Amino acid sequence: MAKNRAQNPRIAAVKALSEVLDSGKNLAESAALSGIRDSRDSALARHLAYGVLRQLTALEWLAGSLLSKPVKKRERDIQRLLLLGLHQLWHDKTASHAAVNETAECARLLGKPWAVGLINAVLRRFQREREQLLSKLDQTTQYFAHPDWMLKEIQQDWPKDWQAIVEANNRQAPLWLRINRQQADEAALKLELKAAGFEVENHTYARDAISISPAAMVAKIPGFEKGLLSVQDPAAQLARDLLDPGPGERILDACAAPGGKTAHLLESCPGIELTVLDRQAKRVEQIQQGLKRLGLGAETIAADATDVSSWWDGKKFNKILLDAPCSATGVIRRHPEIKWLRSQEQINTVVQIQKELLTALWPLLEAGGTLVYATCSILKRENSQQIQQFMENHADAVCVAPAVEWGTAEPFGRQIIPGEARMDGFFYAVLRKSS
């Protein structure tokens, strides 16, 4: 245990769990994870934090079954060390003695030597009783590692698919990249990636998407810093196909941050007149930085899309991409903290925001124009039900069924469930304004 406390990957993972579960931060904002200097330790800390959040209630059930009495609330760091150790013994290929010993010794680094024996005993008992415990866990709702309200809503919306959705949510997502065809020669880029030791695979439906394995930090991916590649799931890349931008078209990209779909539109059709809109100035700066890396440019505006008079010049758009704020329940496999940070009240609020955005932006679309509504959600009240209500209140809106093979056709729109064709969960509706 030569590493100091701040640089110990298990301690960092415990602190990251505290940032999420106690302070409501996203893992991407974790100061504990970003503060580790050694790349291998950083990777381990992230792996552990993400893994525990993917299986949180299941791990808590196991810990509760193994402890003679619950760990006191003020000792949450010890409880979370137990969860890390159980995660490694259950899901990892780490040598069991290393998982037990290294985890237990972390209690000493935390200034709690009394807990070394406790952690050691609990983890070794799990090793002895593993099969019996996991068999019992399989019969509980905690096994699915989703909050009860979310699990019930998924089951209600997707009675035939809910188990596949939950299982996909609890697995690590593959790394998908988007080729910048304004800058990259695809064949040469793939050769460079293979020469660097990566296996490269195309996607069935997203023509600009490639996956690489093993996954790597972007700084180690050839061509990324040069703007030849961006990280983007294939499901998100399908927005470009549905919008089908054409040269000279005036297009609005609303709620655009972090800017992946913005860049994709410009990469595929640089002759468009694109207006890029997001509410937060800091997120607009993020979009600008991303475009600069890719050698692209567009008019970017920081404004509330529903406050139309504050940003619109009065000239109607040929096409609108509304990448609406949502619960993000389709990308849980990438952001497992979503399960524990979301609430039903938050989703009620975002459903109202979606409605307000649709209502505000629809008049800005010219007759005969197209609006593509997108969310990375799997909840029907944000998706098909939202579009159904919009259609009921707008006689000039026609919901067009795209001629595609991916996803599931809904009465209003098309849904991709997590894991389908190795994609994230996404919803799309293509709305055309009648003349």
Name some characteristics of this structure.
435 residues; alpha/beta; N-utilizing Substance Protein B Homolog, Chain A; Alpha-Beta Plaits; Rossmann fold; 3 domains; 9-stranded mixed β-sheet; 16 helices; 44% helix; globular
Report on the architecture of this protein:
The protein is an alpha/beta fold and 435 residues long. The protein folds into three domains: 5-141, N-utilizing Substance Protein B Homolog, Chain A; 176-231, Alpha-Beta Plaits (2-Layer Sandwich); 234-433, 3-Layer(aba) Sandwich (Rossmann fold), CATH 3.40.50.150. Helix content is 44%, strand content 16%. It has 16 helices and 13 strands. The strands form two sheets. Strands 5, 6, 7, 8, 9, 10, 11, 12 and 13 form a nine-stranded mixed beta sheet that branches. Strands 2-3-1-4 form a four-stranded antiparallel beta sheet, with helices on one face. The longest helix is centred in the N-terminal third of the chain and has 24 residues, at 114-137. 45% of the residues are buried. The model has no long low-confidence stretch (mean pLDDT 95).
Could you give the topology of this structure?
Elements: H1 9-21, H2 31-34, H3 39-54, H4 56-66, H5 76-91, H6 96-109, H7 114-137, H8 148-157, H9 162-169, E1 176-179, H10 186-195, E2 199-202, E3 209-213, E4 229-231, H11 234-243, E5 250-254, H12 260-268, E6 273-278, H13 281-294, E7 299-302, E8 317-323, H14 338-341, H15 344-361, E9 365-375, H16 384-393, E10 397-400, E11 408-410, E12 413-416, E13 426-433
Parallel strand pairs: 5-6, 5-8, 6-7, 8-9
Antiparallel strand pairs: 1-3, 1-4, 2-3, 9-13, 10-13, 11-12, 12-13
